[in-house]
Amino acid sequence: MSIKEIDPRTLQQWIAEGSAILVDVREPHEHAQEHIPEAHHMPLSRFMPDSLPAHGEKIVVYHCATGARTGTYGMHLSAAVPSASDVYHLAGGIMSWKMAGLGTKGAGAGSGPFPWMRF
User: Rounded to two decimals, what is the model's pTM?
Assistant: First the structure.
């Protein structure tokens, strides 16, 4: 079973409407470097479903750097929130968020090329 994907613009709309919460499963050093302002940080390496922010019947959306971690562990992440109205992961992770021109915060926010674009 795979987790459903959502694009950055739709996610941004859901967050603005208050119909979704965003959970960043990247490690602390990644989150400190750069993060989506509305995201709740919960590293996958220390993931505890009971520590998820209150979500009621909102849609829960997970994100990582590129979508690989959330895609791989999607079934487990989905099972962690049985009360959510639905569960997705951000296709392409924070990289797709940035490529869509959406803002981030942190020490590395907006500071030059993507990590794989080294010259």
Answer: 0.86
